[in-house]
Amino acid sequence: MDLFDVLNLDGLAHGLANLSMFPYFDMAHYIVSIMSLREQPGALLVSRVSPLACWFSSMLFCFGGAVLSSIMMAEPPVAPLSNSTNVLLATLIWYLVFYCPQDLVYCCVALLPLRLLLSGMKEVTRTWKVLGGVTQAHGKYKDSLLVMIAIGWAKGAGGGLIGNFEQLVRGVWKPETNELLKMSYPTKITLVGAVLFALQQTKYLPLQKHHLMLIYTVFTVVNKSRMMLTGSSASPFAAVESVIYKTFFAGYSSYATITGDVKKATIDNGAINGTTCTAAAKESSENGAAGKLNPICPVNRENGSLKTKEETENCKKTN
Fold first, then answer.
1. Contact at 8 Å (CB) between 17 and 217?
2. pTM attached to this predicted model
3. What percentage of the chain exceeds 90 in pLDDT?
């Protein structure tokens, strides 16, 4: 590509393509993943109640993409765990993040400058995971663009895609958090990367592989850093998503009318019920206050008991 030659970026692209992920970048991936698990609601309690469940969840966070892609490729799902060095490294980081005395490791890594650096390194590993999944699928299914996209997506964002299963390990069931129902930013950016690398592998995208790796890595690192520094969770694809949705999926249909009417009726019923409950509560409180202001007279109570006694005697005489 001429632009890379003009800007002298070809050497940088080759250097990035030849960069080794082990041990530093893999370590950053494990640290950020396990910290993300620790910050899940209830994760600390699980780590005290069942360290084994906590460890298994951590391994799913670290190796979930490789496990999911292996299942999709009809390979043993435990194959990613056969690398003892990586598993031991991830286990050591898991222990330090959850059980280090005084939480020293977590407190140090949670500092913004260090966490910013580690998150950027993790984004670099995302490029290699997506490319590895696409290349793996291309080796078996050379003409299947969909399979390459699916495997690259699964390998790069598998930890999020199997999030419901990971939650079950911790005793949590939240089907509404399914990534397919509401995608998070990492899942979206990984899907975009899988599409780009699949198009490049099939020659539909006129870019060299190392050039695309540099462009994609720079974009993910810069955007992740921007989101962390500004505290924003807005997706950079929000405008495009909105246009696509309104153009292709938000057309008029009888189903949309029905659901809109049902939603409106539900809101109206909720408002009426709320008003009724408020009025009933007010009336009840007023009655209670009136009861307190007008207590039952002891004389009336005695008259009532005398009347009951007389009726009982009359019944006996009649019998």
1. no
2. 0.78
3. 67
